[in-house]
Amino acid sequence: MSKLNAILKRINKLRINFAFVIPKETVELIHQTAVIEDVIGDYVELKKNGSNYRGLSPFTNEKTPSFYVVPSKGIFKCFSSGKGGSLATFLMEHEKVSYPEALRIMARRYNIEIQEREQTPEELAAVTEKESLAAVTSWAQKWLTDQLQNTPEGKAIGLSYFKNRGFRNDILEKFLIGFCPEGWEVMTNAALDAGYTKERLIATGLSKAKQSDGKLFDFFHGRVMFPIRDVTGKVIGFGGRTLKTEKKIAKYFNSSDSLLYDKSNALYGVYLAKPHILKEDMCFLVEGYTDVMAMHQSGVENVVSSSGTALTKGQIHIIRRITKNVTVLFDGDRAGMAAALRGIDILLKEGMNVKVVTFPDGDDPDSYSKKVSSEEFQKYIREDALDFLAFKSDFLSTDAGDDPLKRAELIHSIVETIACVPDAIQRSVYVQTTAARLKLPEELLQGEVAKELQKRLKLEARKTSFKSKSSSEGYRGSEGYYEQTGPPPSAPLPGFENVPTEISEDLAPGIPARNRTDRDILEDNLIRLLMEHGEEMVSVEIEIEMGSEGDTDNDDEGVFTEVPFAELLVHRIETYSLALESESSNFIFEKYKKSLDEYVLPSTDSFFEETTPEVQSRAANLLVNKYSLSENWEHKHEIFVIREADILEKALSSATTRLMLFDVQKNIDTVIRALARKGVTDEEVTRLLREKINLDRMAVDLNASLGVVILPK
Questions:
Q1: Burial group, residue 237, by CB count within 10 angstroms (0-12, 13-18, 19+)
Q2: How, if at all, do strands 252-254 and 235-242 pair?
Q3: What b/e sequence results for 486-500 when a residue is b if at least 16 CB atoms lie within 10 Å of its CB, and e otherwise?
Q4: Where does 61-164 show beta strands of DSSP type E?
Q5: Binning pLDDT at 50, 70 and 90, where does residue 515 land?
Q6: Angle 186-193/129-150 helices, nearest 10 degrees?
Q7: Stretch 430-459: mean pLDDT, rounded?
Q8: Contact 52, 71 (CB under 8 A)
Q9: How many helices (H) and strands (E) are present in the chain, helices listed first?
């Protein structure tokens, strides 16, 4: 037993050392300093919406904004994904990091110094696998940059390469450019000496293991290095360019995909470009690393690159959270243009507004920027931008010439592109302009676009049908997977545990089971009232004991007192013995109940600190209103409406009555199922009918209190 205790003490000691090492006062300072709309604004383009902010969800591929930030409460709510919570929750969800690392991200954003105990290199920024990889990658970036700037080999090979291409040193420093020495194990050995493990080096793709003996070697040896950063400025991967001319050697290598780096969801230059994209409300999209650097050197900073890979939806989503306007810069050669054209359809499908700039034959943004002045370059890319359809029509028409078959192919290709535009009005405009450009009847082009849309709808329907069959065992509700019969029922009446679930809805009074509101929604409404109005004071009548017969003169005068609405709600739920079946709703209720016992009310923050994701999501969902009444109704039009805050007693009465009615109707269903069983004795039938009559009366009375009249059948 003593040995077991020793082991447990050792485990607890390790937990303390590795878990949370940021001082409490620093945590408080971070929370007090961080402005939720500013930090989330680094990831999402937020627009003012009354007292709140709204933008496109960073978690789903939506086209209508349903992501809300509520500064007054310090929370966010994403209606399309169901996620919600505090700023720390947002960073944990979006960056897939732990709570301590989310705090560190906020601290870096506001230059708050965090004093932590001395840790091993991998512990320094890492308590999770992803953070461990980030620590290795961050070390590698600093080491590689130092190799370029401060070693003889780096200066002679790497630095001279960029100087010969006309890049200034301030641009190299701005992009953290580095160099990996020619030796096969130079960086690997340096990383091992710094305390990083072989497993981490392999996971980040910095090192590879030989198949023959498992020995590590530098994956990027002999290459100039382009660190790839995410929107927060954290280095997540690398691109490496060889300086050798042998054709058998690949010109570019990228980091392999890992928990930290996913090339389909990374854009080179996005960290530096984001504030300029927001300012210009437009993003230039180029192909290569040096294209981005060259444009910065020419004074154009709202530019990103797909890092030499085919454009992906994930990359487009990153841009779309900042702006919907994209100008694609194509290389001057026709092969490059033809390849880039394929990416335009993806941009259009995601609802982007697309323009195109082409350079003279043989030039790309990098080479062209070196031939002209910064002013001329900026003027060229802004004034020579073409609408994507005009560009595509002209480009393909050159190849088609007067060949009827090729012209038919051209028209079909343009029809497919127009069909990618999600907005019907925009599609109609594009049909008109393209028909005029190609000298075609507008009706013909419109009909072809309609056929293409119909074909895509059928294909999508087929996919949806397949998914439905694949998930026929159940469907996803707000709390997880349920069987097809619906969410898990509440506890059955005693003695009715084995009653069959099939019932005739026509037998039950009131609302048929299929049309009833889910109990979760009814509970949500009750808890929403608690969280939204808990602090407001309401007047309640209290009972007093008569001290003497002389006091009876005041029998008709009620005695009133002011209490927090939360206290009235908790008292009402306990008086009616209402049970909350949702764990998160029950947690919130119990927290209020406990706080009231201590004569305080819980703060909003307390539901987002050290609570489960389910509780945080439920709290955010209840606190954030997707729609709000315009102040113009009162201030401008003098139209005055009844606000919920003015009728809290009525709102509470309605919420509790509906919850009681749900339970009564459910018990009626249970009795009906029991009556339908085979082999029910006469005595049981009599008892069940009495039970049903009582429940029916209760249902009628509860409905009547809600203003609902149940007509006899």
A1: buried
A2: antiparallel
A3: eeeeeeeeeeeeebe
A4: 67-70, 75-78, 84-86
A5: very low
A6: 120
A7: 84
A8: yes
A9: 28, 20
Distance CA 197, CA 217 (A): 14
- The Cα–Cα gap between 478 and 523 comes to 13
Q: Any alpha helices (H) in 471-601, and if so which ranges?
A: 519-533, 565-575, 583-597
Stated as kind and residue range, the H or E segment containing 462 is helix 442-470
Helix axes 519-533, 613-623, angle to 10 degrees: 70
CA 346 to chain centre: 21
Burial class (CB in 10 A: 0-12, 13-18, 19+), 434: buried
Q: Which amino acid is present at 492?
A: P
List, for residues 621-645, the tens digit of each pLDDT value: 777 765 555 556 555 655 555 667 6
Q: What's the rounded Cα separation, in Å, for the pair 395 and 654?
A: 66
- 411 closest CA partner among 379, 366, 445, 378: 445
Q: How does pLDDT run across 340-386, given as a tens digit for each residue? A: 677 788 888 888 889 988 888 778 888 888 888 888 888 888 888 88
Instruction: Report which residue type is found at 465.
Output: S
d(CA 82, CA 62): 13
CB 306 within 8 A of CB 380: no
The pair of three-digit structure tokens given for residue 496, joined into one six-digit string: 């009715």
The residue assigned the tokens 């980040």 is 204
**Reduced to 3 states, what is the DSSP secondary structure of residue 152?**
helix
**Each residue's pLDDT tens digit, 221-257:** 999 999 999 888 889 999 999 988 777 788 888 998 8
| C-alpha 33 chain-centroid distance | 23
DSSP state of 78: E
Give the amino acid at 584. Answer: S
Checking phi first, is residue 610 left (phi over 0); if not, alpha (psi -120 to 50) or beta? left
CA dist., res. 182 & res. 170, Å (int): 25
Q: Which amino acid does the sequence have at 553?
A: D
Query: What does the block give as tokens for 387?
Result: 């609408």
Structure tokens at 570: 């908790």
Asked whether the beta carbons of 47 and 39 are under 8 A apart, the reply is no
